[in-house]
Amino acid sequence: MTTNQQKVVLITGASSGIGEATARLLARKGIHVVLGARRTERLETLVAAIRSEGGFAEYQTLDVTSRVGFQAFVEFAQNKFGRVDVIVNNAGVMPLSKLEALKVDEWDWMIDVNIRGVLNGIAAGLPLMKRQGFGQFVNLSSIGGHAVWPTCAVYSATKFAVLAISEGLRQENSDIRVTVISPGVTESELADTITDAEAGKGMQEFRRIALPAEAIARAIAFSIDQPDDVDVNEIIVRPTASPY
C-alpha cells in the first residue's frame, strides 16, 4: 500500500477555492502536491506557503482545455517525483444563465473547461497509471450533476457528463480508482464567472449558506486516504441547511 508520504497528487484549478484548500490539506498530511492553474502568481504564493510549513509542493501553469498543456503538466510531475498517484480534476467554471439569453460563448466555455478539461486529464494521466498499475482520478462534479434548475441547464449538463465519464472510466479499469466529489453550494470563485444579472442575483441568495472550501477538501482527502483496494465512488457534500 502506498503511504501518504509517498503519494503524488496533481490538482487542477489549484489557485483558489476547493483546489487551494485541497492542496493545503493534503500537504499537511505529508502528500506531495503538484498544482496547476492559469494564475501562476497565485500558485507561486501557495507553493511558498506550503513549503514554509514543511510541505512538498510544485506548480506549473496549466490551462485544462489544452490537451498538450495537460500532458506537459503530468509529465512535469512524473519527471519530478517518478510517479503520479492521483489527479484531482477540479478546475471548473459556472457562468449561469437561462438558455434564452443565448450566451453561447459561455456555453462553449463550460463545455471546454468542465468536460474537455476532465477528459484531457484522463487522456494525460491514464496511460501512465496503467503502466504503473495503480492510480486514482478524483473528478469534481456538483449537486448540479444530480438535478437541474433554471439558469443551470448547460452547467448541469457538464456536471452530469462528469458523472457519466467517471462511471465509464471506473467500469473499464479494475486497477484504477475513480472518485466523484459532488459539492453543494461552496465558497469559491465559481460565482464570479456569472455575467447574467438574474442568475447572479439568485446565486447571491443561494450562497448565504455556503460551505467553506475546506469541507470539500476533507472529502477529497478521505477518498485518497482509503486503502488501495477501496474505491470511494461518489461523495455528495451539502450544507446541513441546504434544501437542494
TrEMBL record:
Domain Ketoreductase, residue spans: 7-188
Keywords from the UniProt entry: Oxidoreductase
PROSITE patterns: ADH_SHORT
UniProt entry tagged with the keyword Cell inner membrane: no
Membership in a protein family: Belongs to the short-chain dehydrogenases/reductases (SDR) family.
Protein name: SDR family oxidoreductase
